[in-house]
Amino acid sequence: MIGERHVNLAVLAGLVIVPLWALWADEIFTITLTTRAVILALAAVGLNIALGIGGMVSFGHAVFFGLGGYAMGILAFHAQSYTPLQFGPLSLAGTKSMQVIWLVAMVTSALAAWVIGLLSLRTTGVYFIMITLAFGQMFFYFAISWGSYGGEDGLSIYVRNGFPGLNTLVPIQFFWLCLVALCVALVVQWRLRTSPFGLTLNAVRQTPQRVETVGLNPRKHKLVAFVISGAITGLAGALFADLNRFVSPTMFSWQLSGELIILIIIGGVGRLMGPVIGAAIFVALEHWLGGLTDFWHIWLGVILICIVLFGRGGVIGLLTGKEGPHV
Predict the structure, then answer these.
(1) What does the pLDDT read at residue 327?
(2) Which of 34, 97, 272, 325 lies at a 20 to 30 A Cα distance from 317?
């Protein structure tokens, strides 16, 4: 068996080598696929903070992914149409800078996570799962009925937003931007997991009653983790919208929430690189098997069943011989 650190380094090396090879071989579509995997991994990293460290099985994390996407889409829509978007005295007309859009997306998603967390964390277990699912469906149907921004048809963005010093329309440059965002999120996850806050959150996941007896508030710790998780997932949603230059209500769908959970389970719940491995496997299966059959999810289901039955630590657990945390 090999150590988890070696697995992590190998995964990071793969994320760098694959797009460089694709650039050398002039396989531009492979760079786009890798970018898609990186963005989905970023969204799953956000969920992994809530699920892997905090033990919160959220079936509504697509809310934050969708809010990040729509924050980007709405700002870009008003920028390309030169229609001012007013928030009291504040006008965001002409906003095409990714930094501003990322900030808006993360703040919007964090605020939504705070409100949803305040209500959802009053419950536990299957009730928590169902209430997060209910919030996801509420936002999904709201987006469908929001005719000002495309409704069920979604909203097209004709020009990708800019970043200083980069041409974001060049696939490899946009990939590096997304990879840096993923690496920062991974560092945040690692620091959280090893910090006193993360250790307390891990204790809350295992035995909340004991944590409460020493004078700590388990719900408060979970809420903070849930807000951080939502903000990171919202950033991924904004990047995903920029990648596709399109947003639609499907970004709020419960299927997407389920896929994010599947990514984490495949890679390894609570593992640093678990979401990255899961996203890479998911995108690879979607590309290769999706070209052969519309029912490629069957094979994804087979892989998931095998991992749940025989590899509780996910792919990383199989490689290292160590199980991950039990949620």
Answers:
(1) 58
(2) 34
Separation of alpha carbons 307 and 201, rounded Å: 26
Q: pLDDT tens-digit profile of 77-120?
A: 877 655 555 544 444 444 567 888 889 999 999 999 999 999 99
Q: Residue 18: which residues within 8 A CB-CB, separation 6 or more?
A: 30, 34
Q: Rg for the chain (alpha carbons), in Å?
A: 19
Q: What's the pLDDT at 87?
A: 46
pLDDT value, residue 231: 96
Please give the distance of CA 48 from its chain centroid, rounded to a whole number.
9
Distance CA 139, CA 249 (A): 8
For the chain, the distance separating the N- and C-terminal CA atoms, rounded to the nearest angstrom, is 24
One-letter amino acid at 144 equals I
Distances (CA, A) of 141 to 85, 240, 254, 292: 23, 20, 11, 32
Query: Which amino acid is it at 118?
Result: L
pLDDT over 50 at 279, yes or no: yes
Could you give the angle at which helices 28-48 and 274-288 cross, rounded to 10 degrees? Answer: 140
3-class DSSP assignment, residue 166: strand
pLDDT the model gives residue 81: 56
- Is the Cβ–Cβ distance between 4 and 198 less than 8 Å? no
How many other β-carbons are positioned within 10 Å of the β-carbon of residue 216?
14
127, burial (CB in 10 Å: exposed 0-12, middle 13-18, buried 19+): exposed
Query: Domains (ranges, CATH) in the chain?
Result: 4-320 (1.10.3470)
pLDDT of residue 5: 84
Q: At what angle do helices 254-267 and 297-310 cross, to 10 degrees?
A: 50
Q: Which helix (H) or strand (E) holds 167?
A: none
